[in-house]
Design a protein that fits this description.
The chain is α/β, with parallel strands linked by helices. It is 45% helix and 18% strand. A 6-stranded mixed sheet has the order 7-6-8-5-9-11. A 5-stranded mixed sheet has the order 2-1-3-10-4. Helix 2 runs antiparallel to helix 10. The longest helix is centred in the last third of the chain and has 35 residues. It is globular and about 60 Å long. The N and C termini lie far apart (81 Å).
Length: 336
């Protein structure tokens, strides 16, 4: 029996209603997740996040990973975050100080007695939760953070074994005004520069040295330019996983919660991975003819005597930066 015109209309209406009322579970999202590093703890973070989220999302999201600046140089990826053309990026918070100046407070030297203390302080709820929200009005939302590596330096002019060796040199820094000011206090010049531009600049002598971590120096084989790597340890690299605020708002609430929960697990997991990898990278550096220098304690004290107040001095120029800095100082005190 053929359905009547009325029945056809009813069936069509029902089918349309079902399609319109299809559950959010049927939605498919694609997340392009970029970073500048070819390997290391940031890559570990992305891979573990992808695995954890996709396993719980029931096929609703496809997370595609783009290491080694495949989505463009760091400034372009950050612009993409703000525009919504890049859904996620992970890297040192310092690179976003042009977007939100308060991100730079984690670069302050001398706040932490050691790497463990730095990790406890930045992940303390009194600091972490507010810090990750700082850029929301600027188009970026933080979902996780951890301490990656102690700060280290290499110089094409020779080993950095004492504070005096910094004088007169031009060092690439991650990007914050705080880092630039610290270099000035040490008699050097700090030059912010994207990662992929740094090694070529060092090779051709446009800069004398680089301030970063061994997690960068080993994968990019900096031993081809400088054999001596000095771990100064005055501060620590803090990568943050950022999500595009525009894209974040398009997600259903349950998927956001899955992401936040998986990201929170990685605060500790990525830190532990970084600690283990750090020892491996030190051995790789020496196997390739390089020398790893632990900055002598007496020289570190001289360096901190010159630069320990940099954080407070820079923060005092901006009420927002000061409030974020004061929270970090309080978290550091609470986690000693």
């Amino acid at each position: 029996m053929k359905p009547t015109i009325g029945l056809k209309a009813t069936l069509t209406a029902i089918a349309t209603a079902i399609a319109i009322a299809a559950p959010a579970a049927a939605q498919q999202f694609t997340m392009k997740f970029g970073t500048a590093t070819p390997k290391g703890d940031q890559n570990f973070w992305m891979a573990e996040f992808k695995k954890g989220v996709e396993a719980r999302a029931g096929g609703r999201i496809d997370i595609k990973l783009f290491p080694a600046s495949q989505l463009g140089a760091i400034p372009r990826q950050i612009e993409g975050l703000q525009l919504g053309t890049v859904e996620a990026w992970i890297g040192p918070a310092s690179f976003l100080t042009g977007v939100e100046s308060r991100y730079q407070v984690v670069d302050a030297p001398g706040l932490f007695k050691d790497w463990d203390h730095a990790q406890r302080a930045i992940t303390h709820s009194s600091f972490r939760d507010d810090y990750l929200k700082l850029g929301e009005k600027k188009g970026v939302i933080g979902i996780g953070l951890y301490t990656s590596n102690p700060m280290a330096v290499v110089s094409r002019k020779g080993a950095i074994r004492k504070v005096e060796d910094f004088k007169g040199q031009k060092f690439r820094v991650l990007g914050s005004a705080l880092e630039v000011e610290q270099m000035r206090k040490l008699g050097a010049a700090g030059v912010p520069m994207p990662l992929m531009s740094t090694l070529p600049a060092l090779q051709r002598g446009a800069i004398d040295g680089v301030r970063s971590g061994i997690v960068i120096f080993v994968p990019f084989k900096y031993w081809t330019v400088s054999k001596q790597l000095t771990e100064v340890g005055d501060s620590f690299i803090v990568p943050v996983a950022f999500i595009s605020a525009r894209w974040w708002k398009s997600l259903p609430e349950d998927l956001r919660q899955i992401m936040l929960q998986e990201a929170a697990k990685l605060d500790d997991a990525a830190y532990k991975f970084a600690r283990k990898q750090h020892q491996l990278f030190r051995s790789i550096w020496t196997k390739n003819g390089g020398e790893v220098i632990d900055f002598p304690a007496a020289e570190r004290e001289k360096l901190l005597a010159l630069s320990r107040n940099v954080g407070a001095e820079v923060a005092s120029k901006d009420a927002g930066v000061k409030a974020a800095y004061d929270k970090l100082v309080a978290a550091a005190e609470a986690t000693k």
